[in-house]
Amino acid sequence: MKKTYRLLFALTALVFTASCTPEVEDAFDKPSPDRIAEAISETKDILTAAPNGWKMAYQGSGGFGGFNILCRFDKEDNVFCEEESDHAKGTSHYTVQQGQGVLLSFDSFNAALHKYSDPVGKINGKSVGKDGKGFQGDFEFRVMSCTKDSIVLEGRKHGDRVVMTPMPEDLTWDSFFTQIATVASGMSSERYNIIIDKDTLPARMNLHTLHTTDKNGKAVAIPFIYTPQGIEVLKGDSLNGRKLTAFTYSTDDKWVDPNDKGVMLSPRDITPLEAFFSDNWTINVGYSSTAEMNIWKAAAAYAASKNMEIVTVFFSTTPGFLSLSSYVGDDWGNLRTLYSTSGKNQITIKGFRPNPKGTANERNGAVYYNQYKLKDIANTFLVNGQATDYTLSIDDPKHPLWLRMTSNSHDEVSFVFYRGIWSADF
């Protein structure tokens, strides 16, 4: 017979006084310690009974969506886990014990699970979340319900809902992760459209969360997890009055919600301006116009003569403004860029403003600008010393890696950038 139980948070004996109720039978047929002991035993039996382990749809409170972690529990209190992002694996100890009901704890380090509860979150070597918070995930969970078909957990610290379902016996873990990777790659895009009937809402993705704005201008976050079928929405606000549940992957780029055919997710091309402001872009000296790069090389040589090597120069919005950023000597510098934009690919560079009283990086930028020829580098963007209009172009509208900035008035002046922060070859 299928056993299902709901675990109570305050398992305390009910005390009744004679003045309130003269005769009261016990509300439960077993004492509280017996009930919790039975619930702990049943939880452990169910955890260890799945022959191919469990699929955990893990999420934290940091707003990054859900990640698949596969877990196999044994009766000796060991658990082996593997997660989807970096394929981190680990075997560790687990306990099932009392703690405001039944508590499942991964109480020794497991590389696959603790990467999401660690205060320093990383994926593929890149930091995730704020310093000291990471994904804001848990490693201890209250067991809210437990059957052989589903285990529902709640993070003890952050309170996020985590659901575990048994892995199919005929599906290897390697095959599962391959299916997930194929779907994630096929659905990957810089930008998306969420189409609800006749409304088209632009969206972007941050890790495993879609961000959009509804028809009333309200920002909406849609956390999700990848499945072999596509995307499963974990939770979130309704969007234009509709509850999103999932998007089924297909090669035609029309990913329909299986529970509401009027809702669809589609990838869209990113514009050059969107690309420029969405990441860091490092100068490529070899592909940029020769006259301008000769000035850059002369500036780099001068700085090197002062034992202040210019390692790289790149555009960035990370400081909270568009910055012509640099790494000189052994520290970073930021230089505020004055600009305006129009259309999908037009930017006007109007000048640069050093800030000797700003942040540490801004103060560094002012020093590099005034003392180590960064001013000469910055001025190459101002043709004849004037504000200059540029056309931006990218190599791939789905996943651009290269960006070119070409002067509208002097097409021989062009700057080519490679996505990310790299050392510049001066």
UniProtKB/TrEMBL annotation:
Classification via Pfam families: DUF4302 (PF14135)
Entry keyword set: Signal
Top-level taxonomic group: Bacteria
PROSITE patterns, per database record: PROKAR_LIPOPROTEIN (PS51257)
Signal sequence residues: 1-18
UniProt name for this protein: DUF4302 domain-containing protein
Naturally occurring in which organism (per UniProt): Prevotella multiformis DSM 16608
